[in-house]
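Input chain follows. Return structure tokens only.
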Amino acid sequence: MERQPISVSMLAGYIKQIFDAETLLYNIDVIGEVSSFGISGNNAFFVIKDENAMLNCVLFGVENYIPKIGDKVIVTGTPKYYIKGGKLNFNAVRIKPFGEGELYKRFLELKNKLQAEGLFDVEHKKSLPKKIDRIGVVTSETGAVIHDIINVVSRRNSAQDIVLYPIKVQGIGADAEIVKGIEFFSNYDKVDAIIVGRGGGSDEDLQNFNAESVVRAIYDCKKFVVSAVGHETDFTLCAFVADLRAPTPSAAAELLTKDRADRKMQLDLLMQNISSTMQNKIILKSTELLTINSRIQNTMQNFIDKKSNDIALLNQKLQNLNPTKILNIGYARVERNKQPIDKSKLLNLGDKIKIYFADGAVNAEIIDKDK
């Protein structure tokens, strides 16, 4: 028998009933990494994620703890399905930190590895070509980046050409497309410099530009490469390995074009190089300090744990040496005039003694002696 179609409202109502009836989902703890966070009024709207999924959350009544992008957190709350909007939200009642974010941790691990290999060293960076007739751009063909670059180049030097290698800038497989674009321009003789860019986004949106394959492709590229990923405050591994980092795609186009004020442009470029190098060094050193601080904390914690264990062993030894411990298994202690007596020959007939047991003591007199 063919099923009769149901309305959207009925289906949405069924979905809501399923979530409302599932008591196991009430006030559960969910671990995730913060990929976006915003506050409106006294409410926070944010997204947590792991490697395979994302969850929209809302916290009514912002607490003292305000997480940063990349923080790993524990969110306590209940999933709610809203019929009118057709949207599932996780209504949070509490959010608290859960250690360093996994994405940021992997970012630092890979950065330290590539830095140790020398991929970010200044001596490997190429000089800006004296003559740039054609610029290769590795970015999306539909985003604002390519339009911004075209506008800047057209305004400053209409004689310069732009060649686009279209890619997707985020999502599964985007890193492979970025690598192909870089490799294509590396072997394309008619391009003098390359811009690798995309607009801003969350840390997760920019992850493909932190891929090891992309970093190595830029390092191996035969052409001068400008990294123009995200906004001025966004730093990816592309920025460390590129020959030059531009704060925005438009700024990258400015750096690779010349107008009548050529001398001024050269000075500006020099300042950009100095600023970019200093920024990279500051970030690299800051990361090294964070790593050193983490090692110091681990060393201190190991020292504290060892000393705590030593104290526990000493305490156990003291317990074993406790003179009252032997009384609990049936032995007694004998004293005469508050002096311990450990041999019968030290006692004489008529001596007054005191015998201590585990539960008390008795007074006694020596009336007989046996060997």
